[in-house]
Amino acid sequence: MTARLNAYLGFIDTAREAMEFYASVFGGEPTFRTFAEFGMGDPAEGAKIMHSELETPSGFVLMCSDAPAGMAGPTGSSISLCLNSGPEDDAELRGYWDRLSDGGTVEEPLVTAPWGDTFGMCTDRFGTRWMVSIGTGQPG
């Protein structure tokens, strides 16, 4: 088996909603496992997500969970997820950009950058930071 590095996102009470959103952006069917399924956590928070996973048709893997009561939730990080490809995937990446930035905050619009690629940065409505880079297909 080959080792893989997957994005694992942490939320406070919005993991299910976030993962359903990412499935609407990227495709695929998320799986959900709650704290209650494992007999963990306070019964009042049994519906919280202990683990969720989404594997997309493009081969992306996103995982996430809610922070249980008594555990500090995410406070942000300097990590951004980057979607990048060449011009052959322009329409696909622009579609991701449109859906991820809808309801979020655009830090840098998706435009031609000084180095020639199309590039943009946004934070989606769940607080996840994204970069989209569409290469020109020309040697750099």
Write a structural description.
The chain is of the alpha/beta class and 140 residues long. The chain folds into 2 domains: 7-66, 2,3-Dihydroxybiphenyl 1,2-Dioxygenase, domain 1 (Roll), CATH 3.10.180.10; 81-134, 2,3-Dihydroxybiphenyl 1,2-Dioxygenase, domain 1. Helix content is 17%, strand content 34%. It has 2 helices and 8 strands; from the N terminus they run βαββββαβββ. It has helices at residues 15-26, 90-101, and strands spanning 7-11, 31-34, 49-55, 61-66, 81-85, 105-112, 118-123, 129-134. It has a 4-stranded mixed sheet with strand order 1-4-3-2, covered by helices on one side. Strands 5-8-7-6 form a 4-stranded mixed sheet, with helices on one face. Strand 6 (105-112) and strand 7 form a beta hairpin. Helix 1 runs antiparallel to helix 2. The longest helix is centred in the first third of the chain and has 12 residues, at 15-26. The mean pLDDT is 88. InterPro entries: Glyas_Bleomycin-R_OHBP_Dase (IPR029068), PhnB-like (IPR028973). It comes from Actinotalea fermentans. Residues 8-132 form the PhnB-like domain. This is VOC family protein. It holds the Pfam family 3-dmu-9_3-mt.
